[in-house]
Design goal:
This protein has a three-stranded mixed sheet, with helices on one face. It has a two-stranded antiparallel ribbon with strand order 1-4. It has about 130 residues and is α+β, with helices and mostly antiparallel strands. It is built from three helices and five strands; from the N terminus they run H-H-E-H-E-E-E-E.
Length: about 130
C-alpha cells in the first residue's frame, strides 16, 4: 500500500511540475504581434546620432566617476578622440582601462565638433581617493 501511495505522489508531483513549466513557457512565448514595433528610445537615439553626424557636432557627456573603459567606449562612439592623463602626476601608462577611473574631464560637457579631443584625468582603482 505504501508503494502505491508513493507512486501516486510522484505522478501527481510530476504532473504539477509539468503543468507549471508549461504555463511558465507559454507566458514567455513570442506571439510575433510586436515584430514591427520599435523598442522604446531606439529611434530617437539613432535619429539623434544621425543628426549630430550630419551637422558635424556631437554632445560631450560627463564621464567622471566611471571606469575608463566605459568612458572611452562612450566618447569614441560619439566620434570624439580620447586622451588620458594620470591624475597623480606620476605619468603612468594606462595598460588596462578597466583598472582606471575618470576623476576629471575636459571638456566636461556641451556641443563640440566631431573628432574633438576629450582629455580624461584618471587614477587607478587601487589609488587612494584624493
Amino acid at each position: 500500500m505504501k508503494l502505491h501511495a508513493t507512486r501516486t505522489r510522484l505522478v501527481v508531483g510530476a504532473a504539477t511540475a509539468a503543468l507549471a513549466a508549461t504555463a511558465f513557457l507559454a507566458g514567455c512565448s513570442d506571439s510575433g504581434a510586436d515584430d514591427d514595433a520599435t523598442p522604446t528610445g531606439t529611434s530617437a537615439e539613432v535619429t539623434s546620432g544621425a543628426d549630430e553626424e550630419a551637422s558635424g557636432t556631437v554632445e560631450v557627456i560627463d564621464q567622471t566617476h566611471l571606469l575608463l573603459a566605459t568612458a572611452q567606449d562612450t566618447l569614441e562612439a560619439r566620434g570624439l578622440t580620447v586622451e588620458t592623463v594620470d591624475s597623480t602626476g606620476q605619468g603612468r601608462t594606462v595598460d588596462d582601462p578597466t583598472l582606471w577611473v575618470v576623476v576629471a574631464q575636459d571638456p566636461l560637457s556641451g556641443e563640440v565638433e566631431a573628432g574633438t579631443v576629450v582629455t580624461l584625468d584618471v587614477r587607478r582603482t587601487d589609488d587612494p581617493a584624493s
